[in-house]
C-alpha cells in the first residue's frame, strides 16, 4: 500500500512542529513548502537527521516549488503572518488573504484530491477563501481552531480542579475570535458536569460561577495571552498538535468527533458560513456535523460569534 503524503504549506513556527509530529507519528511522507529559499529544506533536513534516534521511517522534503506537493492526501496550511502583541487575528486579514489566494491556487493545481486543513488566521475567513479559490467540496476544506480552543478550556478546568487533563471533556463552538463559545453545560470531568464539581469545591454557587466565568474569559483570550508573552509571534506547539489530531483522524479514518471549522448549511441556525462545530472526521473528510440543542443563552452567544465571522468574511472581496 502506498504511503500517505502530507503537504505542509508554510514552514514557519507551526510548520516545523507539524513536520516533526508527522514524522514522530509516522503519519506519512511529508513535503514542506515555503516561499523562503532554504527554510523548508533546512527544517526538513534537521528533522530527518534525527530519524535514527527517534526511530521514525518517513521521507521528509523541503521545497520552494508547488510541484512537489503533487498527490498529497492531506494539506495543512500555515502560510501567513502571525499576530504581534496588541493585534487581533482580524488585523491579519488583508495580508493573509493575498497569501491564501496564492496557496489555494497551488493546492488546486497540484493536490486536487487532497483534504485541506487551514490554520492561518483569521481562521474562519481564511478557510472560506481557501474553499472558494480551490473550489473543493466543503467536506474537503476545513479549519483548525476548535480543537485547540477546547483543549485550552479543558486545560484551565483540569488545573483549577486538580485533576488530569485526560479526564476533562470540553467543547467550544463558533468563530475563532474573542466571541468564541466555550460550552460550560456540555463540559464534564469523567462525565460529571463541571459546574457540579466547582460548586462542591467552593460550596458556593456564586463563587463557582465566578471561577467558571474567569476560565471562559481566559479561553477566549488564550491565544492573545501567548502572543503577549512571546512578543515575536503566536502559539505554535498547540495549533500544530491540534491540526495533527484532525489530520490523523482523516488519514486513519478514525471518525473522531472534533471541534472543526466547517461549512454550515442550516446547522445551529447558520447558513453559508464556516463556523466551528463538532464534526466527525474520517476518510471522507468532514463526514458529519454533530448538531445538538443549545439553550437560549448559548444560542445568543453563538449568534454573536457567528455575526463576528459574517462581518469579517463579508468584508473580503472574492
Ligand atoms: N506561500 C507559502 N508560505 C508563505 C507565504 C506564501 N505566499 N507567505 C509567507 N509564507 C510563510 C513564511 O515564509 C513563514 O515561514 O509562512 C510561514 C509562517 O510562519 P510563521 O511566521 O512562523 O507563523 P506561524 O507561527 O507558523 O503561524 C502561521 O498560523 O496560527 C496562525 O496566526 C497564525 O496566520 C498565522 C499562521
Largest sheet: 6 strands, parallel
Radius of gyration: 19 Å
Q: How far is the N terminus from the C terminus?
A: 40 Å
β-strand amount: 15-25%
Bound molecules: adenosine-5-diphosphoribose
The largest beta-sheet arranges its strands as 3-2-1-4-5-6
Strand/helix succession: EHEHHEEHEHEHEEEEEHHHHEEEH
Shape: globular
Low-confidence runs of at least 5 consecutive residues: none
Q: Helix fraction?
A: 40-55%
How many DSSP-defined strands?
14
The residue-averaged pLDDT reads 96
Structural class: alpha/beta
So how many helices?
A: 11
Spell out the key features of this protein.
single chain; 318 residues; alpha/beta; six-stranded parallel beta sheet; three-stranded antiparallel beta sheet; 11 helices; globular; binds adenosine-5-diphosphoribose
